[in-house]
Amino acid sequence: ASRAKKGALFSHFSFENADILGMSIASHDLRLLEHLMGEEAGTLEALSVLEDGLRRSVLARDWSGLDETLLRVKAAGEKVWQADQIRAAVYRKIQISCRLGPGVSFQDVLACVPVEEREGLNSLHRRLRVAAERVRCLTGGLDTYISSAVSTMDKVLGEILPERKNRIYNSGGRIEGSSRPVMISRSL
Questions:
Q1: Could you tell me which residue, 167 or 178, shows the higher pLDDT?
Q2: Which of 18, 23, 110, 130 keeps 20 to 30 A from 62, CA to CA?
Q3: CB of 108 within 8 A of CB of 125?
Q4: Using alpha carbons only, what angle is made at residue 164 by residues 160 and 166, rounded to the nearest 5 degrees?
Q5: Using an 8 Å Cβ cutoff, are 18 and 109 in contact?
Q6: Per-residue three-class SS string for 122-176
Q7: What separation in angstroms does the CA of 125 have from each of 70, 153, 172?
Q8: Tens of pLDDT along 177-188?
Q9: Which residues, listed in sequence order, are joined to residue 101 by a DSSP beta bridge?
Q10: Number of CB atoms found within 10 A of residue 126's CB
């Protein structure tokens, strides 16, 4: 109800009446936002390619290049975070120029942008959302696969070595009460 109320509040607002209210959105800010949205979407798309490569390596059990891939994924994730921080700051500046609060939708912000600017920003917003959703799905799928594999491995080891169930580790990282070593095949 609150969101609908906010939408109704700003549905009559447009760039044409912004000058009446003494507001102006700097063209530079809009250009910068477009650039930053495109840059962030591109960074997310690059991250999704790396995430997909990571997924393929894990599924193929190709452990040799996994460390390098993980480092590249981490570096790409940091670039995404930095790009998001900068884009969010510029976006907030535009929200303030429109005299809108931080909780309003992107469509409410677009309503106070010149008509000729809206389509480009809307298109970039869709691209950014799709790229972010792709990364989220790839990461979630990989997390589910790994969690399932670890759970299965724990159950198998629990059945094969019932004395290892409910293990208690000492301060040195060794299992208390057992001197029998456990061999785990990395091919599982």
A1: 167
A2: 130
A3: no
A4: 125
A5: no
A6: HHHHHHHHHHHHHHHHHHHHHHHHHHHHHHHHHHHHHHHCHHHCCCCECCCCCEC
A7: 28, 42, 51
A8: 554 444 454 544
A9: none
A10: 12
